[in-house]
Every structure is written in structure tokens, then in C-alpha cells.
Amino acid sequence: MSKQLIIGDVTQELTSTRRILERLPEEHMSWRPHDKSMTLGGLATHLINLLNWQIAIIQRTELDLSTVPLRREALEKQSDILEEFDANVTKLSKLLIECDDKALGDEWTLRHGHHIIRQQPRALALRTFGISHMVHHRAQLGVYLRLLNIAVPGFYGPSADEEI
Fold first, then answer.
1. pLDDT per residue over 105-152, tens digit each?
2. By the 8 A CB rule, do 126 and 10 touch?
3. Distance CA 13, CA 134 (A)
4. Is 133 labelled a binding residue?
5. Residue 52 vs residues 34, 58, 87, 130, 148: alpha-carbon distances, Å
6. What is the pLDDT of residues 14-25, one digit of tens each?
7. Predicted TM-score of the model (pTM)
8. What residues does a divalent metal cation bind to (predicted)?
9. Burial status of residue 62 (CB atoms within 10 A of its CB: 0-12, 13-18, 19 or more)
10. What are the residue boundaries of the structural domains of the chain, listed by start?
11. What is the pLDDT averaged over residues 73-77?
12. 112 known ligand binder
């Protein structure tokens, strides 16, 4: 997989993620659709954490989940979420530009202590554990917005809230 293809893929998904974060209603940040669900603010904060994981994929050869805090305090202000998101996107973009093809092909490991969860080339880890994981939670955020009757942006074409 070429580096330019990876950068284009990442850029498209991060741009789409920012578009949905721009629609976060601060008055509903503590709302959740179900007792087992994250709050709206918690889910948005998790999207930021996934950017931190993407940065870690590029910077390190492994991520040990036993060293990562289980829960982070949910951000409650849209401006704080967008500010941290943008800072992380800038950092990730710089790292991707500086990364060479060899590094993208190097083996990357996800572990929990001594237990290895997955080993795969760094580029594939970035796509699956980083970007696809983000897309999954971004879709959840879209459902939250729909349930709150807030217009959902289209990502791969128009949504039901956008005119063609």
C-alpha cells in the first residue's frame, strides 16, 4: 500500500470525523441513549483517544493496553473537543508525512501485558485499530445525533438530512 493512499484515506476519515464533532450540542453532552452506552461527551472524547492511539501506532512498535487508563473524563465543551482533535490531527499528519514506507510495513503489536492481541504491519494496524475503529464510533455518534433530532452529516455521500 502506498504512503499517499494511506495519507489520503486517513485525511478523508479525519475530515468526516471533524464534521460530526462540529455538530455536538453542548446541552446534551451528558445524554446517553441507554444505561450501557457512553454519554455523548464520553463518545466524542473516545474519538479523540482513538487519535492518540493512531499517533502511538506511528510512533511506537507496540501499544500495551494494560498501561492505558481505562476511562478518561469526558470533555463537556465542543470547543475543547475540537481543539484537542485538531491538535492531534496536526500531530498525526506530521508523523505520517515523516514516516517512510519501511516503517509503515514494520510489524506493530497490540498487547495487554504479556498477552498479544494482534500483530500486523503498522499501516494495517493504523487502518483497522485506528481508522476503522474511529469510523465505528463515529457512526455511533451519528445515531446519537439522530436520536437527539440533530442533522447528521453525510460521509460517503449525502445523509437523509442533506439535499442532493
1. 999 999 999 999 999 999 999 999 899 999 999 999 999 999 999 999
2. yes
3. 8
4. yes
5. 27, 10, 10, 9, 28
6. 999 999 999 999
7. 0.90
8. 46, 133, 137
9. middle
10. 1-148
11. 93
12. no
